[in-house]
Specification:
Length: about 120
């Protein structure tokens, strides 16, 4: 599957907006197929949805989302200062981090995630 096929499933709101292909194109450039392997399309989709959410749902705002609430269910990410990189600012970014941590060779620590993110975006 391609990211364009996964987008309506993972982020239907984004798929309904015009210009979403720009986010997918940018996410393709920033997401290493060598690192993600068969999960590349999912990685691109989650990264594109993360970027779109930051730019469209939170324009002009700053700060950290420390919890996610849907209906009566909520999940806490901890307090201020626990964010290890920008991917923790949205639910899609958190899903991308979970995917990265589950891939073979992932160490899953704060320092290694920063290193792996740098590797992932290097295109190697």
């Amino acid at each position: 599957m391609e990211p364009e096929d996964l987008l309506p499933v993972y982020c239907p709101q984004m798929a309904l907006t015009s210009g979403y292909s720009i986010y997918i194109d940018q996410a393709k450039l920033l997401t290493s197929s060598g690192y993600f392997g068969s999960f590349w399309a999912l990685g691109v989709t989650l990264r594109a949805a993360h970027m779109w959410t930051l730019n469209s749902k939170r324009p002009g705002t700053s700060g950290v989302e420390t919890f996610l609430m849907e209906g009566r269910l909520s999940k806490s990410y901890g307090g201020v200062g626990v964010i290890r990189d920008g991917l923790q600012l949205t639910n899609y970014g958190m899903q991308l981090l979970d995917l990265m941590d589950s891939l073979p060779g992932s160490v899953g620590t704060v320092a290694s995630t920063t290193i792996l993110t740098a590797y992932m975006t290097s295109g190697l």
